[in-house]
Design goal:
Blueprint: E1 2-10, H1 16-31, E2 37-41, E3 53-56, H2 59-65, H3 73-84, E4 87-93, E5 97-99, E6 114-120, H4 131-134, E7 137-138, E8 141-142, E9 150-158, H5 162-175, H6 184-192, E10 199-202, E11 207-209, H7 213-230, H8 235-243, H9 251-256
Parallel strand pairs: 1-2, 1-4, 2-3, 6-10
Antiparallel strand pairs: 4-9, 5-11, 6-9, 7-8
Length: 263
């Protein structure tokens, strides 16, 4: 088992998740040479030419991880646990997150008592208020629905916290049908990593994202164009090209998207 590892989970009908994770991984290999990267994915062939370890997601395993296809974000939560079993400290990023500089210092902030997440979003949506009357438990803690919501687009965690993440995962299943939102995964993880004397710190690393409608539309076109133009090159050449390649929007790009409300 290696000490430090970066991780991604990429699955689903939209290939952008797999190619987004690959593009992010290529940039990561440029800024952090020698980085150990694992991707849990249902499209393993996309990654086989690269210095990236792959855990294949079968349809059966995805059904199991998502509680019988009732909550797809359960695949992400269970996938983080799977990758964390292969290292001591894991720094996970969603497929739409990508580094713009050296982020290898992330591991110095990860310990059994300290985790990293993207940011604290404050109190969750009103949909969570029903939890207090439903007797929903995370470990031995009775949830009220007013606990702080941490964004899990970035997650740095020590493998000593696998039991806490497992408690969070089982609580997600309890919440199916109780909370009409897609965020129980990050809600439960944030609580679990804040219990028992543990704390969470917001990351302040050079990482960007394309997780809004306008950014995603632009990034999709750019990432597709990148692999169309560079996919035939060797891994080392693609790593170099990815580091110089822009997937964020310049002012002119924003002007061209002025008809899109959600930027």
């Amino acid at each position: 088992m290696g000490r430090d590892r970066f991780g991604y989970v990429a699955f689903g009908d939209d290939a952008l998740y797999a190619f987004g994770a690959l593009f992010s991984g290529l940039r990561l290999l440029h800024y952090c040479p020698g980085a150990k990267i694992t991707v849990l994915t249902d499209r393993p062939a996309i990654f086989r030419r690269y210095p990236i370890d792959v855990i294949e997601l079968t349809a059966e395993r995805m059904t199991e991880m998502s509680f019988g296809n009732r909550y797809l974000f359960g695949i992400k939560a269970a996938g983080v646990i799977d990758i964390l079993r292969r290292c001591e400290r894991l720094f996970f990023m969603d497929a739409d997150m990508y580094p713009t500089g050296d982020i290898s210092t992330c591991f110095s902030d990860i310990s059994p008592s300290l985790s990293i997440m993207r940011k604290c979003e404050g109190k969750p949506k009103p949909a969570y208020r029903t939890l207090e009357e439903k007797g929903c438990l995370l470990g031995t803690r009775r949830l009220t629905g007013s606990e702080p919501m941490w964004n899990s687009g970035v997650l740095g965690v020590h493998n000593a916290n696998i039991p806490a993440l497992t408690d969070a995962y089982h609580t997600m299943e309890q919440m199916i049908g109780l909370v009409r939102a897609h965020t129980p995964e990050q809600f439960c993880i944030g609580i679990a990593l804040s219990e028992g004397g543990r704390t969470i710190r917001r990351h302040r690393l050079p990482i960007r994202n394309y997780n809004t409608r306008g950014r995603k539309l632009f990034a999709r076109r750019r990432i597709e164009a990148f692999f169309e133009a560079n996919g035939h090159l060797g891994a080392e050449q693609q790593i170099k090209q990815a580091a110089a390649y822009r997937v964020w929007r310049a002012p002119l790009d924003l002007l061209r998207q002025r008809d899109i409300w959600h930027f």
